[in-house]
Amino acid sequence: MTTEERRRARRLAHLGLWSAYPARTRPTAGRWIPATVSLILAVGVWWAVTGAGLIEPLYLPGPGDVVARMVSQAQLGIAWRYLSPTLLAALLGVAFAVVVAIPLGIVITHSRLLAAVMEPVVAITQTVPLVATAPLLVLWIGYGTIPIAVLCAIVAFFPMVTTTIVGFRSLDMRVVENALLDGANSWKRLAHIEGPMAAPAVLAGVRGGVVLAMTGAVVGELVMGGAGLGTLLTLSREAADTAGVFAVVAWISLSAMALYGLVQLLERAAVARLQGETT
């Protein structure tokens, strides 16, 4: 690498555009500034387009109309009444997925035979569309929160099991071999060596699964019925209430972002605890 190329690489790294060291691209204290500026610009363009009357409100309501609808829904209690069933189904689905996906991923990484059998099956499960799976769940389980939660678990299952597999297969085998030489049995290695080392990847899968579970809950309510945001979205769509549709989409996005942030905080605390970075 020439001197000029090194200077160019340093400039790109200082600007945050590209770094040759992925470990140095972790979010810093000001990580929300670019996202906030981008959001403000997007809303500004949205407001300018709708304010100038370039697009009819039937097709694209103004941001002020959407915010006003959300405030009205919050004041009347409509937002929480429809949001709580969706959150319940999503969180229940995440719990189902965690109980199945993480142990399955651990077993797959320790069994060559099971890996050969299960990995293709896990991949195939993701090829079936949710709208095709939902009617089957209605036939097998019925209506209510449980089938929607199962649909959420199916959606969240794949990232959890794949990141678990990647995390355990990326372990430093020298550390595991040292534990074997010290006489640690399988459970001790899993609890004190393998689990803490793989925790960042495993918990990242849980974080992604939480967001996907919200999508699964809404899709389940759209197809199977229910009392959550999917139902409110259907009612707004049938009433040609575009502002209401945008408001529901905003509630879904805000809820998913809140869950993502909460799980991210828990993830950092758990990783620090498991890896001995706190006392």
From TrEMBL:
<feature type="transmembrane region" description="Helical">
    <location>
        <begin position="198"/>
        <end position="223"/>
    </location>
</feature>
<comment type="similarity">
    <text>Belongs to the binding-protein-dependent transport system permease family.</text>
</comment>
<keyword id="KW-1003">Cell membrane</keyword>
<dbReference type="Pfam" id="PF00528">
    <property type="entry name" value="BPD_transp_1"/>
</dbReference>
<dbReference type="InterPro" id="IPR035906">
    <property type="entry name" value="MetI-like_sf"/>
</dbReference>
<feature type="domain" description="ABC transmembrane type-1">
    <location>
        <begin position="83"/>
        <end position="267"/>
    </location>
</feature>
<protein>
    <submittedName>
        <fullName>ABC transporter permease</fullName>
    </submittedName>
</protein>
<feature type="transmembrane region" description="Helical">
    <location>
        <begin position="87"/>
        <end position="109"/>
    </location>
</feature>
<keyword id="KW-0812">Transmembrane</keyword>
<keyword id="KW-0472">Membrane</keyword>
<feature type="transmembrane region" description="Helical">
    <location>
        <begin position="243"/>
        <end position="263"/>
    </location>
</feature>
<keyword id="KW-1133">Transmembrane helix</keyword>
<feature type="transmembrane region" description="Helical">
    <location>
        <begin position="121"/>
        <end position="142"/>
    </location>
</feature>
<keyword id="KW-0813">Transport</keyword>
<dbReference type="InterPro" id="IPR000515">
    <property type="entry name" value="MetI-like"/>
</dbReference>
<feature type="transmembrane region" description="Helical">
    <location>
        <begin position="32"/>
        <end position="55"/>
    </location>
</feature>
<feature type="transmembrane region" description="Helical">
    <location>
        <begin position="148"/>
        <end position="168"/>
    </location>
</feature>
